[in-house]
Amino acid sequence: MSILSIKTDQEEAFVGLQTEGKIVDSETWQAGRELSMTLNEKLEKLLNKNNLEFKDLEGIVFYSGPGSFTGLRIGASVANTLAYSLTIPIVGVTGEDWQDTGIKKLKNKENDKIVKLNYGAEPNITKPRK
């Protein structure tokens, strides 16, 4: 089972590939404000390096927060789009053992269908200027 993991909650982003429950390859990079331009590139590079294509994926584990509002939104958009277009399950998880938890959920046939985010706090909405 080939599972893609994505974590975009901080300046440093992570993509990983698991096969048979073990991480076989991963990449961490300083994405910062370049996340929207680098995430798809890093995913393609990871799959190509392991002689896989997107169609070979059987599930996606996404770290759903808490974390950066923009980083989580970008990562969730990519992860949700991939899961939907490939018709594969996706799970959103939190905590330190997020990858292990996500893999267990996928093995138990869980599917969130759409990952919902946990920002860790209520939004800080400012009052409009007059």
Descriptive keywords:
25% strand; Nucleotidyltransferase, domain 5; alpha/beta; 5-stranded mixed sheet
Q: Can you put this structure into words, describing what you see?
A:
The protein starts with a strand and ends in a 23-residue tail after the last helix. It has a domain at 20-107: ATPase, nucleotide binding domain (Nucleotidyltransferase, domain 5, 2-Layer Sandwich). With 130 residues, it is of the alpha/beta class. Strand 1 and strand 2 (12-19) form a beta hairpin. The protein has helices spanning 35-49, 69-86, 98-107; strands at residues 2-7, 12-19, 22-30, 59-63, 90-93. The protein contains three helices and five strands, in the order E-E-E-H-E-H-E-H.
Layout of strands and helices, then pairs:
Blueprint: E1 2-7, E2 12-19, E3 22-30, H1 35-49, E4 59-63, H2 69-86, E5 90-93, H3 98-107
Parallel strand pairs: 1-4, 4-5
Antiparallel strand pairs: 1-2, 2-3
Helix pairs in contact: 1-2
